[in-house]
Amino acid sequence: MGFQDILEEIHSKLRDAPHKGVVASYIPELGKVSIKNLGICLLTLDQEEYGVGEFQTPFSIQSISKVLSLTLALNLIGTEVWKRVDVEPSGDPFNFLSLLELERGIPRNPLINAGAIVISDILYSNLKNPKEDFLNFVRELANDDTIDYNLDVANSEKKTGFRNVAAANLLKSFNNIQNNVDDVLDFYFHQCSLTMSCSQLNKTFFMFANSGKSIAGKTYLNPSQVKRMNALMITCGFYDEAGEFAFEVGLPGKSGVGGGIVAVHPGKYSIATWAPGLNVKGNSLLGMQALEMFTTKTGLSIF
Ligand code: DON
């Protein structure tokens, strides 16, 4: 069975699933998206693409952007990043605050909200025009100038992101935010509002499957940095469900509350899914099922 047939079989099994999860509404703008969307897209290392359903429809990538901001921070200041944020799985929800107090303002990892806010602060200090420069970096990675922020989503989160405001202020009280809290949060909300399709996500994440070299052939990370990024994705990319994702799917990956997931098999492929209904842990319910079916059917997990 070829990849296209496998994706079609998974899509037809899941399309009419009775339980699709719940669309995130704590960011009101995200709540407007139809739960019926289901896209799956595969990009192999030889740049063959296979897709089904809404794999070309752009959606809000939300926390998936945390991998991209960390990549840019590593590009800019290298291992200095690890003085400000740890690399341990949190075992807690993505917006959990109490660990931050216990661990004196050093977030557990860069893929939970508090960690990504520290990374935003690092970028804010090191980029001339943070929003513009970050967007250009992502466009370059994907080799696609049409990728953009969704300002309605960014503004929607700005009005309701109370837990992020709390986290940023707590970080500031421990001197782990150097810039103005409102400026850093505005930048963080813009990163989360990046809009991409499954197809664009695969192109952006291609380099994590391709030893740090982007789809356009430019090297952004060295092999040791790619190893670390993939290690962080597999241990921290799904918050308190990282174990379950590794157990079911067996790939490094990252989810977002917009319902997207992107995962990579180093040396083989990148795969992205979009299904906006989330499970109780905030990860796409059908997306996780689709990826489990894919790696089980093909035998192509890293384990
Ligand atoms: O900061 C937030 O809460 C959102 N902008 C991103 C959260 C998110 O995507 C967590 N993912 N599963």
Describe this structure in words.
This protein has 303 residues and is of the alpha+beta class. It folds into 2 domains: 164 residues, Beta-lactamase, CATH 3.40.710; 128 residues, DD-peptidase/beta-lactamase superfamily (Beta-lactamase), CATH 3.40.710.10. It is 46% helix and 12% strand. It is built from 12 helices and 10 strands. The protein has a 5-stranded antiparallel beta sheet. It has a 3-stranded antiparallel beta sheet with strand order 4-6-5. β8 and β9 form a beta hairpin. α1 runs antiparallel to α12. The longest helix has 14 residues. The two termini are 22 Å apart. Bound molecules: 6-diazenyl-5-OXO-L-norleucine.
The neighbouring-strand order within the major sheet is 3-2-9-8-7
- Gyration radius (Cα, Å) is 18 Å
CATH homologous superfamily caption of the largest domain:
DD-peptidase/beta-lactamase superfamily
Percent of sequence in beta strands: 5-15%
Shape: globular
CATH fold topology of the largest domain: Beta-lactamase
- State the secondary-structure class: alpha+beta
Counting DSSP E segments of at least 2 residues, the number of strands comes to 10
User: What's the number of helices?
Assistant: 12
Summed up, what is this model?
A hairpin with a 3-residue loop joins strand 8 (260-265) and strand 9 (269-274).
